[in-house]
Amino acid sequence: MCFNNETLSLVRVSFNIINSANVISSCKLKSTSASSPARLVRWNNNNHVGTILNVDSSCIGDPIRTGFGGVLRNHSGTYISGFSGYINSPTDILFTELATLYEGLKLAISLNFEEVVCYSDSLLTVNLIKEDICRYHVYAVLFQNIKDLKSSRNFSLEHSLREGNQCADYMAKLGASTDDIFTVHSSPPELLIPLLGKDEIGSILEDMLGTKISKTC
Q1: Domain contains 103
Q2: Among 137-141, 153-157, 173-177, where is mean pLDDT lowest?
Q3: Residue 11 burial (C-beta neighbours within 10 Å; 0-12, 13-18, 19+)
Q4: The sheet that has 115-120: what strands, in order across it?
């Protein structure tokens, strides 16, 4: 929060606590005599092949400004497109996460992608989209709109740890720092390029390690 000049409201803190608790509860400990190797957290952590969409939202500044954003890449990490925007709803985190996902899927459709894997670091959002939501939910229409977009194409939604979602986080902060409701970035912003490079290098290194391990085994 200090380094990024990021402000977290009580709602955001509570949301992050619940999100982290859900991640922890989903983990299962396995008894083993040897320690397990550390796992690299990546932007495409499930190694999907095809087009990958990472989305995120962010609250920064004082007074709080809320932004959203995302990045479309192929599975090797090459930038395809991105988006960012500003939402005048600084404390409604669930709405922001849902709106981010909705805008990202709409962008993928506008670019004529038939198959996309979307990553969000909001486990709550991912779980809610996969569940049957009560039609009286305050965001029932937005939930249904997202589900309609997913079902219209071969789109899937996965959870990502925050550490693997740095590029989308940057785009969300970019959106919060402007008054633009929605901007499509056909080329990556200058400060995003180093983050894209780190993700791409990580992808290559993991592929090399995976190949080496399979040959050894």
Answers
A1: yes
A2: 137-141
A3: middle
A4: 154-159, 115-120, 51-60, 65-74, 79-87, 183-185
Q: Is residue 121 part of a domain?
A: yes
Q: Is residue 77 part of a domain?
A: yes
Q: Is residue 3 part of a domain?
A: no
Q: Could you give the CA distance from residue 67 to residue 88 in angstroms, rounded to a whole number?
A: 9
For residue 85, the domain's CATH number is 3.30.420.10
Mean pLDDT of 153-166: 92
What is the domain count for the chain? 1
**Tens of pLDDT along 90-139?**
667 889 999 999 999 999 999 999 999 999 999 989 998 988 877 788 88
**Cross-strand bridge partners of residue 184:** 83
